[in-house]
Amino acid sequence: MNTIIPHTVNIDTAKIHHDQSKPVQDIQRLIATFEPHSRVLPPQADHSLNMAEFAKRKCVLLHTGYASLCRQSDGLVLNTESAPFVFGFSDLYQTTQNLTVYPGPMTKLSTLPLIQAWKIVEREEQWESLAKLLMHISTRLYGHCVRTSHTASYETIRALLLELNDEPEALRQTTPVLQYIQSRCFLSRSGILHILSQLRIGNYITINNGRLIKMGSLPIKF
Asked: In sequence order, which residues have a C-beta less than 8 Å from that of residue 143 and are 6 or more positions away?
């Protein structure tokens, strides 16, 4: 008999791993360096912030709350990060307006021109902190691509449920499960709802008012 090896780790272990992998001190160091040169933005939950305007790239500092990075062409959510975080350096030489930041409620953002942030990194010799930030971004995006590139619909939904369970509490409380999954893949609404319904019937997940309340160990196959 073949042994089935789960392709996703236990939920609690995944959460601990994610927390340990984020270079918080280096990100805080970058924010402290950029902040005196940045402009604080007014609260704009449910409003988008273009990462480029008039072909000028932005560096966006996430001080509190969380924000999602989306592709403008189709609204696909590429990543969601909680504070502290710095957006902008992963797309340094791209001048098209193809990425948008959507801040969550009670989120504080500030911004400065990316070219200025780059010069500050050079002047203040913050290369190590910047490298660790970019490594974190690459790891997060690669992990997301791996989790959502499954050919089976259930595997994609399972991966996104695990990802949602690892998001900041504020995001979990304000984002419906269906919306979270739909915004991160191209599966049909009816297909997602069917699988969520079956998981609820099996007591694998608890959903109240559309929000994920509790999640147990999800089956590998559907």
From this structure: none
Tokens 């959460």 appear where?
Answer: 15
pLDDT in tens, 157-211: 999 999 999 898 889 999 999 999 999 988 999 999 999 999 999 999 999 999 9
Cα–Cα distance, 150 to 157 (Å, whole number): 9
CA atoms of 76 and 205, how far apart (whole Å):
25
Residue 167 has which token pair? Answer: 């998001």
Let me know how many helices (H) and strands (E) the chain has, helices first: 8, 11
Say which residue the tokens 């504020």 belong to: 170
Q: Which helix (H) or strand (E) holds 212?
A: strand 211-215
**Alpha-carbon distance 7 to 150, whole Å?**
11
For 158, what's the count of Cα atoms within 13 Å in the CB-facing half-sphere? 24
Give residues with Cβ within 8 angstroms of 137, minimum separation 6.
79, 89, 90
Q: Which of 49, 61, 118 is nearest to 87 (CA)?
A: 61
pLDDT tens, residue by residue, 111-166? 999 999 999 999 999 999 999 999 999 888 887 777 767 678 999 999 999 999 98
